[in-house]
Amino acid sequence: MTIDAILILIIFVIAFVLILGEFVHRTLAAWAGAVAMLIVGKMYGTLDWCSGHGSNHCEHNLFTAIDFNVIGLLVGMMIFAAMLEICGFFEFVAIKATKLSKGDPWMLVVYLGTFTTLISVVIDNVTAIILIAPITIKICDKIKISAIPPLIAEAILSDTGGVATLVGDPPNVMIASFTASDPNVAAFTFNSFIEHLTPLTFFAWVATLGYMRYYYRDWRESKPENIEEVLQEDEWTAVNDMGMMNKTLISLAGTIILFSLHELVLSPRGIHIEISAIALSGAGIAMALSLPEIHTVIEKVEWTALVFFAGLFVMVGGLEHMGHLESVANWIFGNFGPGGSISSDPMVLAVVMIWVAAISSAIVDNIPFCAAMLPIIQKLGELSEEVNVIPLYWALAIGCGFGGNATPIGSSANVMTVSISEKGGHKITTAEWMRVGLPVMLITCAVGTIFMALFYDSLYVNP
After folding, report:
1. Which range marks the domain in which residue 55 is found?
2. Could you read off the pLDDT of 300-324 as tens digits, one per residue?
3. C-alpha neighbours within 13 Å on the C-beta side of residue 295
4. Are 349 and 332 in contact (CB under 8 A)?
5. Using CA atoms, how far apart are residues 34 and 416, in angstroms rounded to an integer?
6. Which of 145, 155, 160 is nearest to 206 (CA)?
């Protein structure tokens, strides 16, 4: 390993420790790591993955590594959330949900967690969290209980439930998009994701909810306050601008429909529209229809989370370019691929992929890790006819989706949950998240392993 590769790895490890240890704010740690990597790249003439640029232009990597499609999606959905908060929609839903649960803390977790999961089946889990987390905080503030358990539950249940469909989890979208351009692999369609992943996701989701009920057994006994007052409130009085609420909800509904059409109708017909363009266009239409106070909307966007994502993308891009992620893949295939030193059973290879993807996704965020693994899996199939890559794509989807639960930076939905919790006065620490998320990762990956072992030949060999 070269000195620059070692330095890049050390920088990432230090930044990762700073982020999870909460020694400094995660955004500062991410960008300190990103800048340090760029300095190493400038000094050694490395980190140059920009086509057409020489080693003296490594600073261009700052923009190449950042996935602006993800950033654009988040900005668009944050604008929707800001407008819904301004017009009183979240307050309206908070009162309604409190009445439905009659103030029972555990029933709030069940209702909100289930609702978030159902949304995550139709749209990506990041969007679901952006819309649900503010409502959760308002409910908990009203009845004076900690919002941390339901917030963590919503994120983890949405991460888990999002694995079930093509559009539910960003790595699933990436896998479907990547394989669609591979002539050697049949397309991973919306229906195939439901067939292959929904059954195991259901069992994993139920197991997750069961563990949370056990873990939060003390919190479930907490006595909410102001229940009688909230039950007597008229939720419609919370809406301060009915016109804005209706226009924003219509624009949001249209945006969500386009999200689904994008994967189900437009892309298969060769009509490619970036999902970020859909989100930003929908948000722009909502603002044009309602003409809100623009400064108020801008202030409510989670800019610190967006900047953190950008820094994280740069750091993971550095790891990928220096070959560290490829080394992980080579270790997997060298030990468990055809003629592997440990096992050459293709089913074992798929199971190992689940666990390596899960552990790696907990460390580097599942979106960039999935992006790094896709071409590696494809290359493996090209180099060896003995390897059926289709089960490996399914294993990657399972591992990335379930593994992201382990840490607060394991998935984009987790990062958004932590950011919104801080802004709402219910800060979620890394230690608290991992006490819930790490066991959930182990439980759900165990479910995925069992399904892969039982149904490898009958279900996962074909898309």
Report:
1. 1-64
2. 888 888 888 888 888 888 887 787 8
3. 0
4. yes
5. 20
6. 160
